[in-house]
Amino acid sequence: MNTVGGAAEGAVEMVRKYKAWEGSNKFCLGGRFIFGPDVRSIFLTVFLIVAPAAVFSVFVARKLMDDFSGDWGIAVLVVFIVSTVFVLVLLLLTSGRDPGIVPRNAQPPQLETYDNSMELDSGQTPRLPRTKDVIVNGATVKVKYCDTCLLYRPPRCSHCSICDNCVERFDHHCPWVGQCIGLRNYRFFYMFVFSTMLLCLYVHGFCWVYIIKIKDSENSSIWKAMTKTPASIALIIYTFLGLWFVGGLSIFHLYLIATNQTTYENFRYQYSRRANPYNRGLAGNFMDIFCGSIPKSKNDFRGKVQKKQPMMPSHSVGASFDSTTLAVSKSLQGKSIWDEANDRALAIGSNRVTLSSNGDSVTEYQQYL
């Protein structure tokens, strides 16, 4: 009985990864959708799209069905409804998917060798440098160490302070969609913004068409015709203001795509004094965004992981990295390290990790792209 009781006490409790997630994200439908902590802002965004869409359908498009001959009036309403649904789907694809989160390390990368570039603490113990130089397309790029995720960030990766995750090709955190914009959802983000701009133009244009129809049918002035349809006037003003926002955003991101920059890089003037190593030319840059395959998520949010145990004092970049004193408090699934010899990030497979007794060697690994 005691043996059974001891075995039960020592049993490892497994939970879904999204339930043990250390970031600030919110999950829906059992980890199938991941949102930012400000997910409630999506409801405002949906309202700003659906409310004017309903007004246009009832007070403008429905009236135009009688003014256009044949099926043209029906086509106006059908195209509008399909376009609105398409915009909402793009909003969900942008806000509800993994933007490119880099899995955290269970512990800092192992300190393998010592050279003059490594920092020393007061006890003369080597510690990891805060930055490393890597070569990208022949250019030297600095990558930073993340104290929160315990890894050297891949190039173009940054830590979002809102979601508390390192995100690949980090562009920005968008409060309107309640999610980081990164490697895996930037395409959908731009399509959402651009489609919303086209929808505003569609509503704006047909509101004027309806006003002109009223003017011609009653043989009155344009001003008197406008008083006959206050819904059209409200929509014209609303879409005009919206076009300044989504139209300007579409043009700005079109420039970023053409030059292969991110918002984060552009605001920091990272390529103002040196060449952009990621620029592949106009056609190549557009191909990267719209035609390239979207990488698979590095996080299996529905996978089983060991339930997190009480944490020991955390180790930062300034702490000693003696592998004999570090406590492994997280699962090694998706662990990332940095290959110093090849200047590449590597990920250790969850079921294929073999470390030597002193933690200095890895016998099996997968390339981390």
Automatic annotation (TrEMBL):
Bilayer topology term: Multi-pass membrane protein
UniProt-listed Enzyme Commission number(s): 2.3.1.225
Location within or outside the cell: Endomembrane system
Statement: the UniProt record of this protein carries the keyword Cell inner membrane: no
Molecular functions per Gene Ontology: protein-cysteine S-palmitoyltransferase activity
Keywords: Acyltransferase, Lipoprotein, Membrane, Palmitate, Transferase, Transmembrane, Transmembrane helix
GO cellular component: endomembrane system
PROSITE patterns found in the cross-reference section: DHHC
Family: Belongs to the DHHC palmitoyltransferase family.
PANTHER family referenced in this protein's UniProt entry, alphabetically: PALMITOYLTRANSFERASE APP, ZINC FINGER DHHC DOMAIN CONTAINING PROTEIN
Name under which the protein is recorded: S-acyltransferase
